[in-house]
Specification:
- This protein has 3 helices and 12 strands.
- By secondary structure, the protein is mainly beta.
- It has a single domain, classed as Pnp Oxidase, Chain A (Roll), CATH 2.30.110.
- The radius of gyration is 17 Å and the shape is globular.
Length: 175
Amino acid sequence: MNPTLTREFSARDFRDCLGQFATGVTIVTSRAADGTRVGLTANSFNSVSLDPPLVLWSLSKKAGSVPAFTAGSHYAINVLAADQIELARRFASKEVADRFAGVAFLEGVGGVPILAGCAAWFECANRRQYDEGDHILFVGQVERCGLARDGGAGAAAKTPLIYHGGRYFTELPLE
């Protein structure tokens, strides 16, 4: 069966098509100028360069945390493990007043929160920002990163949380 090609599509069509690209789930954290911790769930994360180590993520211009991320010197990208689905929902919700209440974390570079139990994390200097469409693209220079493992050193990496088609999934090995 061949896909139907059309010249016109709606914003919903575009979003549905993007949803077919499975991604990991992250929580990006930082500190506002007044020291307040900020964080949000994002699946718009990918690597840019190994040398220098650069990553990219994007944030809607409508997000209330835009000032904290655009003005801040650092942020952390916390890659969520499969057992952190409730954390993903909490940091995605506009209903939660204090997203960090009761959440275990360490302070990283610039005081940014590194969430406990994540599969991996990247502590980034806020290197560049690009105003594109309805989002701001952030390029971060990775200053430190870490990988969590189930059962400690030498054990397998933690199972990641995956987002696809508007739903959360866990890894299913094919081999």
